[in-house]
């Protein structure tokens, strides 16, 4: 039953009215590309993204707002790591984090209690952290993660 809620909750992220991410965030994330993705093909990894798009009910949309907030917080945690600061252009990273911070502030106005959803989001990002650590935070590993975050956010 929890997996059903997880799938449905994650699915509705792109139709949430409270979705404050704007195109600037996506543009900045894409601008952070420092090496061609093709040169990192052997580093690809399946992070087991825990949801997909489906039809969404009003109750699921409410849970999706929680999911959205949890995802953005984890993305913020990822890009504020010391190893992240060393991997990216500091100006672009600062702009990305500023945009992300503004989105999180807007979502705080609609904060809901969603403890069960947080477990799967944390597991997903734990997998990303373990991958980076296993690859010793290499430039290709960060590029793979950057692409994963773009993919992840495109489903929100």
Question: Can you describe what's shown?
Answer:
The protein is mainly α and 156 residues long. It has a domain at 1-8 and 23-28 and 62-156: Growth Hormone, Chain: A, CATH 1.20.1250.10. The chain is 65% helix and 0% strand. The chain is built from seven helices and no strands. The longest helix has 22 residues, at 58-79. The protein is globular and about 40 Å long. It starts with a helix and ends with a helix.
Alpha-beta content class: mainly alpha
Distance between the termini: 22 Å
The overall pLDDT, averaged over residues, is: 77
The major sheet is characterized as: none
Task: Write down the CATH class of the domain at 1-8 and 23-28 and 62-156.
Answer: Mainly Alpha
Low-confidence stretches: 1-18
Radius of gyration: 15 Å
Shape verdict: globular
Roughly how much helix do the residues carry, as a percent range?
55-70%
* Secondary structure: number of strands: 0
What is the chain-wise order of helices and strands? HHHHHHH
CATH architecture of the domain at 1-8 and 23-28 and 62-156: Up-down Bundle
Q: Per DSSP, what share of the residues sits in E-state strands of 2 or more residues?
A: under 5%
